[in-house]
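User: two proteins, same treatment. go.

Assistant:
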Amino acid sequence: MPLYSTSVPRARRLRLVLGAAAGVLLLGLVPAVRHDAEAMVGEGGPDGPVGPRLTVATWNMCGEVVWGCGKYGSGEQKVEALRSMAVHHGVRAMLVQEACRGDLERARTGLGADWQLAFQPYAEVDDVGTAAPVDCGDGRGEAGIGILAAAPLTDVSPVAAPQPEHGLRRGILCATATAPVSPTAPDSPAAASGGGLRLCVAHLSLPPADRSDHAAELRDDQLAALLAAGTAWAPGTTSSVFGGDFNSSPPGQNGRDAWIWPAAYFDTVQECAQQEPDQRSGFAPTHQNGRKLDYLFTALPRHGCHQVDTGSSDHRAELLTVTAAL
């Protein structure tokens, strides 16, 4: 369960990339049923850009009993929280961290045949370099990051980024949620949106516990890799939403973390809760420690941002509504 910790000065970088392609799981290869989420009234307002609306969520589920997350609810409660976000908040895509594979599989099944899941497990690397999965406990399977979406997921791929030599390797995972375009309606919202939305979920390394070399910072390169993956859209897509648990304060909130952020964040792409172009601080906290650690970025028009306290994690979920269609 991630807790905030201050970073140490930058020194040499570890360039070890987890080969996660074999660890990526894709479930539910079925046609999607298109559903446009209702718009939230937010900074886009009623006079904002006209078009289909889609709500995307990021949530650190704190699912691992082995990491002390049992006090934040059972697997059944976390599955219900995912269902509630879809049913009661209109969420059509979920980027999740510290998720248990079994919980996500049950959630996908319960949400219906139009939902798909892509999953990438964490790896714990010991002092001799042997990697082992992290088991959630209670028979709920491996822990990792995932993407749940009410659409077919294609081009599922882990993103190469520096990871700890020893310790916990979390990772970045991307997939394209593809809205089917009817041949009888080539001018439909799905066609106008390019037919797909690139989604990327990240869980960044926690400083300094994740590093064998305590003088090395990894989050700056991980943020750069996520930005590159989130803005280099796959064929057939024209837009993206990416984010997750960054284990980092916004650049204007903590000077010790400010340098890790590539300049394009909050500029070329905007954060869910960003109200002004130059805003770099003053965001509502997403973690119970009083800090904002969870983010959603996009270049799409935004129509609202809010948080949901599921009561089943030490993180609140962040929900972003954009102009897009699935």
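Protein 2:
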Amino acid sequence: MEHRTEEEQVAALKQWWKDNGNSLMIGVGLALALVFGWKMYQQSVENTKNAASSLYQQLLEVALEPAENDESASTVEFIAKKLKTEFEDTEYATYSALFLAKSAIGKKDLEGAEAELQWILANNSDSSLIPLVKARLARVLDRQGEQQEALALLDAKDAGTYSALYLEVKGDIYYRAGDMDKAKQSYIEAYKAMKASDVQRPMLTLKMADLGISEEDA
């Protein structure tokens, strides 16, 4: 219905505000809360990443010191554990777990190294790291006498650019087990994959030579 007078229009507006004003204000308030809440969340994420990045930079500075000693190794381990526990949702936690796995291997703590690598597989979102982590885990499992579990990780079809690495690790596992025929075959396949992907694996040719395999054989 059209309102004929200005007074009627004002009265209608007042009535509309009375009926809908509270809902409108609540809607505006919620919209503003969402906007500011999202901005605060983004700022929090950025602050977290900056803090993790700074801490990881400290880790690298200590880890890359020319002369590593017990003190620097302990410092690296301390920072890595702090990053992993306090910044679990960042990529720096993954990198820290790799440092912790390396540290554990250096101490001959194979169970500790396995735990760190398994943690990465369970928590890491960067799929490009998975093949490298699986290769390292396979070596650790092999050293623990779990040959079949190690080999099960090394499916070259899932390795992408790491297929040569997977096949080389397979060869190493067979070599340690005394199965020289399978070791030779794996090294030859690794060599072919290396050539196809144009990556360099200098140790591979030495391992082949040790088993009497020439590059022409591959």
